[in-house]
Design brief:
Blueprint: H1 8-25, E1 30-35, E2 40-45, H2 51-67, H3 71-80, H4 82-89, E3 101-106, E4 109-117, H5 121-133
Antiparallel strand pairs: 1-2, 1-4, 3-4
């Protein structure tokens, strides 16, 4: 049995909300939304953002999608659990538990992830929190 899917229009609205929040903070970022399998559905790099930030954003988004939790929460869990650290290392970098990743929800169920990279990781986290809480953010994500 499969859960709800990640609609393209939702992924695009999440990316737009993240870019708007980053612009308001004057922090250029890459914003990527992946599906539950960690594959890119939508994304963008703001002007001047290096390609490597895109790759980091994809990995943060994948971690949030896989764990169904923000990456700063996954990071805190890993700090307490050496087995989780080993499991994260076994992904060969496909997932990255660094702040700046958030699950994307439909009807309360995770269907993908949002990853942000470009600022300091705490800025990425703050921008993501603002983007997902903004009145212009997709209702499904709030």
């Amino acid at each position: 049995m499969t859960g709800p899917a990640l609609p393209l229009d939702l992924a695009q609205r999440v990316v737009t909300a993240a870019l708007d929040a980053a612009a308001a903070e004057r922090v250029p970022i890459a914003a990527v939304v992946v599906d539950a399998a960690g594959r890119v559905v939508s994304g963008a790099r703001m002007d001047g953002v290096p390609w490597v930030n895109w790759e980091v954003a994809v990995r943060k988004a994948a971690a949030a999608a896989v764990f169904g939790a923000p990456t700063h929460v996954v990071r805190a869990m890993a700090d307490e659990d050496p087995v989780l650290v080993t499991a994260l290392a076994a992904t060969d970098g496909e997932v990255l538990a660094v702040p700046g990743g958030f699950p994307v929800l439909v009807d309360g169920a995770p269907v993908g992830g949002l990853g942000l990279a470009g600022g300091h990781y705490l800025q990425d986290q703050q921008i993501g929190e603002k983007a997902l809480a903004a009145p212009t953010a997709p209702e499904e994500t709030r």
